[in-house]
């Protein structure tokens, strides 16, 4: 049986994964329900998967301590999970506890992980990595936390820019803290008719 792979991402209503300026990592919209939900997602045993860009962003934020969200319990738990970093440019040792560096094609690496892992796989962010994994049919679930902001002038990292076309089957939906929508989908590559 293959392990389930979840692409987990934060997004503004207009589709950006982050923003410049004075926006925080949660666009200032986090609340206790969101933080409890995030911790519950990362509490079970699982393997965390990320690419080089996300690895560098996370370790940079954690090292600086400037972003308040790096001290949230779910971030601490995420960092405690066994992790696989897929990169052809990073060098060991990695500044992440229990992390393994995997070189090679990300699709091949994750396909192998799905076959070999006895725990689910989860990735937070890693946009280009996850877009390629979706195109290869390796993403079982896309969990999007939509924050109630539009970052038209300051938005960066368009989450699905350059992605293939997908049909999405809604598996779960919830509203946290009366404002953040968490939507879980099963993606299927759209077949042109």
How does this structure look, described?
- The protein has 193 residues and is α/β, with parallel strands linked by helices.
- It has five helices and ten strands.
- Strands 5-4-3-6-1-7-10-9 form an eight-stranded mixed sheet.
- The model has no long low-confidence stretch (mean pLDDT 95).
Q: What is the CATH top level name?
A: Alpha Beta
By CATH, the architecture is named 3-Layer(aba) Sandwich
Share of β-strand residues: 25-35%
Instruction: Give the averaged pLDDT, no decimals.
Output: 95
Helix amount: 25-40%
Q: Report the structural category.
A: alpha/beta
How much is the radius of gyration in Å?
16 Å
Weakly predicted, low-confidence segments:
none
Overall form: globular
Biggest β-sheet: strands ordered side by side in the sheet = 5-4-3-6-1-7-10-9
Number of strands: 10
Number of domains: 1
CATH superfamily: Dihydrofolate Reductase, subunit A
Order of helices and strands: EEHEHHEEHEHEEEE
Compact summary:
Helix content is 27%, strand content 32%. The protein is an alpha/beta fold. The protein has a single domain (5-189), classed as Dihydrofolate Reductase, subunit A (3-Layer(aba) Sandwich).
